[in-house]
Amino acid sequence: MSEHAQSGDPNGTLPRHYLKPCLLLLLAEGPSHGYELLEQVRRMGIKGAEPGGLYRYLRAMEKEEMVSSWWEPSQAGPARRTYVLTEHGRGGLHDSVQSLRDVREILVSLLDRFDTLPTRAASGSRP
Amino acid sequence: MSEHAQSGDPNGTLPRHYLKPCLLLLLAEGPSHGYELLEQVRRMGIKGAEPGGLYRYLRAMEKEEMVSSWWEPSQAGPARRTYVLTEHGRGGLHDSVQSLRDVREILVSLLDRFDTLPTRAASGSRP
DNA sequence: CGCCTATAGATGTAATATGCATCTATCCGA
DNA sequence: TCGGATAGATGCATATTACATCTATAGGCG
Fold it and tell me: Please, are residues A21 and A55 in contact by the beta-carbon 8 Å criterion?
């Protein structure tokens, strides 16, 4: 944001901002490892997610004890670090989701407000 | 985000990320000046909005010709800089809103996904 | 008038976050 | 044993943010 107002996500994908709730949700659905999480997160709409940030983020969450992990050998390819949600992480997910609900509401009202704009500005949704 | 997963907006307010669409929408509703926009933006849910960023942002948008502005004397207090949306800004609003719609959709599906989580994780929304 | 306060707006800067490229290591199959 | 795919980790240059500070003007007041 700031200096060049232009820069925001160009495609219309969910800002990387929501990486955290996504990861927590994914891990609430079951243990997983970085690479897989990366793909799932991308499939969820965070197209801009990239390995660097994701691995770092996972590590940071572990430091906060939202998740815990261990190495696990795999048949095919190098060992993986498997992550599971901790109890604390479950609480974090809950909080995140609450925030997201608030965001959704604001978003919805903002969008509604746009749709009821008097004139041509709302052309995308008018006959 | 990243390094310390804790840091994100704590309250659950709309990330300042959405400052741009908010400002464009507000200005699509009519001309306004910085101070007033700041308050409106805050009322819309972006509690974390602060003067510094907002004024800078307005200036940046003007450089991109999304808005244009001029000084206007006021009875009470110092002169204000009044901003109006340009045609180009109207287009920008349109694009922003399209992105926001996408975000909303992802958000909604993410939230649904949370609500259908098997066990206790979804305690906040189950009987 | 001289001073104080509230309103408006502009800037500087340190701390953080992100994006991107790169690096290591392991396994598989040819 | 070499090359490719899988996994994960890291370094570093930019971007972004939050905060504090600074200027300027109008209005009220003693």
Answer: no
Show the CA angle centred on residue A90, arms to residues A85 and A93, nearest 5°: 105
- In this predicted model, what pLDDT tens digit does every residue of A25-34 receive, in sequence order? 999 999 999 9
75-114 in chain A: CB under 8 A from chain B: 90, 92-94, 97-104, 106-111, 113-114
Within 8 A by CB and 6+ apart from A98, the residues are B12, B124
DSSP letters spanning B35-96:
HHHHHHHHHTT-TT--HHHHHHHHHHHHHTTSEEEEEE--SSSS-EEEEEE-HHHHHHHHHH
Longest CA–CA span in chain B (Å) reads: 61
pLDDT of residue B19: 87
- Which range among A30-34, A66-70, B14-18, B43-47 shows the weakest confidence by mean pLDDT? B14-18
DSSP class of residue A66?
A: S
Q: Which of A29, A101, A104 is the closest to B117 by Cβ?
A: A29
Q: Which nucleotide is nearest to B1 (CA to C1')?
A: C17
pLDDT at A16: 61
CA distance B45 to B39: 10
Contact B123 A13 (CB under 8 A): no
| Confidence category of residue B6, pLDDT binned at 50, 70, 90 | very low
